Amino acid sequence: MRFPMLMQVWSYQISHRLLVFRSYEKEGDTTATEIEFVGVVGMKTRSSYRSLTLQEVESDREMQDLVNIPDRLSHRFRRIRLLDGEEPAGFVVCGNVRVREVPLGY
Questions:
Q1: What is the pLDDT of residue 1?
Q2: What's the pTM value of the predicted model, to 2 decimals?
Q3: What confidence score (pLDDT) does residue 106 get?
Q4: Around 104, how many Cα atoms within 13 Å sit in the side-chain half-sphere?
Q5: 64 backbone dihedrals φ, ψ, rounded to 5°
Q6: Which residues of the chain register pLDDT less than 70?
Q7: Which of 70, 81, 90, 104 is least crowded, fewest Cβ atoms below 10 Å from its Cβ?
Q8: Rounded CA gap, 87 and 5, in Å?
């Protein structure tokens, strides 16, 4: 999935293991794009991205070094590589990813 817009880390709730990225608001916008990573067990992110691409991968050495998931539970998690443009820029290991448009309240 590609999001050709400025995105920022909007919130992270440790107790709910929820990470939210949100598009920067521009004048005239009535909605913002939110990407929710649910059930986060490990991550390495930047605070913002010029153009965010999510790329699901089967296995990744850097993710494995940070997040030790037993083989019997591995099928429950998604490994998402984050790219800023074409440049590798972190990752998220989580249970699911949701994308939604949210209204902006002015």
A1: 92
A2: 0.89
A3: 56
A4: 14
A5: -60, -35
A6: 106
A7: 70
A8: 15
